[in-house]
Structure formats: C-alpha cells, structure tokens
Amino acid sequence: MAQTTDTLLLVRPSRFRKNEETAVNNYFQEDVSDPNRTLRAQQEFDSFVDQLHTHNINTLVIQDSGEYDTPDSIFPNNCISFHQQTVVLYPMFAKNRRRERNLGYLQALKQRGLTYNRVINYTRFEKENRFLEGTGSLILDRVARIAYCSLSPRASADMVHQFCLDLDYEPFIFVANQTVDGLRLPIYHTNVMLSVGTHFAVLCTESIDNRAEKERLIRRLQETGKVVIAISEEQMHNFVGNILEVKSTTGKPHIIMSSRAFSAFNADQLNQLHVWGSIIHSPLTTIEKAGGGSARCMLAEVFY
Asked: Highest taxon of the source (predicted)?
C-alpha cells in the first residue's frame, strides 16, 4: 500500500461563488463581490492543472456543466475517495453539496479504464444528520492504516468508526479549534490543519486546545515515522496545512500547495519539506477566498 498516487481527479467549476450553505461553519470563506469570480476561478483552476501536467502528474478533469447548481464542486475530495478496488461515497453536511454526486465521477473513471469492484455508500446517513466529508474530514495514513479526524459538524465520531471498520483503519479522533470573533470553534475540515505525507506531517499544533490530546497526536505521528512540522494558527489560515504529497508518473515525490501557502511557510519549514518532495504551487486566490478551501481540497486522489 502506497501513501501517494500519480493520478488526481479534479472538477472544473461552472458557476463559482461563496456557498451560502457551507459558510455557516466554514470560517475560511470570504465574500467575493467580483462579478468575474467564475472566470477567475476557472483561470486559476486551468493554471493549476497545467502545473500538475508540467510535473508529469496524471489528471482526470470533469467539467461541471452547471446543471445542478453545485458551487463547491471544485472540491471533489469531500464527496468521494478511492482505494484499491474500493470507492467510498460520503454523507455531506450542506444539502446543495449532495448534488455533486450527479457529476459522474465513476463514469469518468470508467471511460479511462478504471473500474472498482466495491462501492461503500454512506450517503443514507445524511437523513440522520451524521456526516463525514471524505478526505476533508479524514487524513489517511494509508501505509500505517490510521485515519486521523478532527470532530466538527461535518465529521461525526460514529461515522469515523464506521469507515475504519469497513476499510480496516485505526481511528485517531481529536478536536481542533480556531478563533472566530473571540470564540474557539471547531475547524470545519481536518485537512486545513493536518497533512500527512510519507515521511512528514504538517500540523497546526495551536489549534488543539487539549494539551494531552495534542501530545498524544504528535506522539502517534512520530511513532509512524513522521517528522512533525508545527505551524501556527495564522499560517493555517493561509492554507499552509492544506497541502498534499503526490508522485509523478516516474515516481518522483511532489508536494502540492497554493502560492499563498507557499509564501506563508517560513524558510526552515520549506527546507524540511524540500527533503521529501519538490514543491508545486499555483495561485488560487479567488478559489481560496470564496470557497474556503485550497489546493488539497481540489484533489481527489485516485488509487486503483
């Protein structure tokens, strides 16, 4: 079992905007009044994909037709994840995000000759208000078989345990918060405060208020051979934690992030990351502001 893949699924947006249904608990989203925001998001998306191709990373791009009014379709990793011969479909918090399942992910993969024997469908749990938003909520150490998850309105503990039971992972559940108007509130997705690569983990230690829980998480990451790179809450808000390790078709390791995240890392942190992969970064300004997500959120890793 490998930690990284050379194939990524992405969705090119049709009508991009700040999703009003997700903004209730995604405090990274900002109002973007620019009437050309869709065009700007598409330009950012296209430049991002070009960067991936330049570094010999396979992409499978689905064009959102706009038929279903899916403002967050650009973040497919929340709806679906891929494993060896297994696909998982997830229960989504926002009702309008559930329509993203109509975009035909599996059909697109089938057209590329990629088929899966098993589909695990958790979407029925939406009726019970039990949610788990894919690899936004779950940070998977695919080698050590650990699923890290910070609880939030979009990640229910029982759903984490169900995933781990079905896919043979060990659950590691904790709580990560951010400061919003003077209050400590749950971070909407784990993948903005934690990234796990083959040999490293980028972790916003300031977001975990329970000291014992923080120490336990750091210890578990180190036990599995990860060098922990601690980032601040301010860095997290610049999407420094929202990064992903991938590999090229020749097996070369790369670490993908936005240009905003790249600029927010300090020199020592970047030097550490360079040990484990060449950094790919691209400007995602409009996508980050209105969508409240960054590079990692845009990438559904394809394992098959």
From this structure: Bacteria
**What's the count of helices (H) and strands (E) in the chain, helices before strands?**
9, 17
Strands ordered across the beta sheet of 146-150 = 138-141, 146-150, 170-174
Question: Could you read off the pLDDT of 47-58 as tens digits, one per residue?
Answer: 999 999 999 999
3-state secondary structure of 113: coil
Per-residue model confidence as pLDDT tens digits over 148-158: 999 999 999 99
**Residue count of the chain:** 304
243 contacts: CB under 8 Å, gap ≥ 6: 195, 202, 255, 256, 257, 261, 295, 296
User: CA 287 to CA 83: how far, in whole Å?
Assistant: 27
**Of 150, 147, 152, nearest in space to 164 by CA:** 147
Residue indicated by tokens 């620019």: 34
- Cβ-based burial of 237 (10 A; exposed 0-12, middle 13-18, buried ≥19): middle
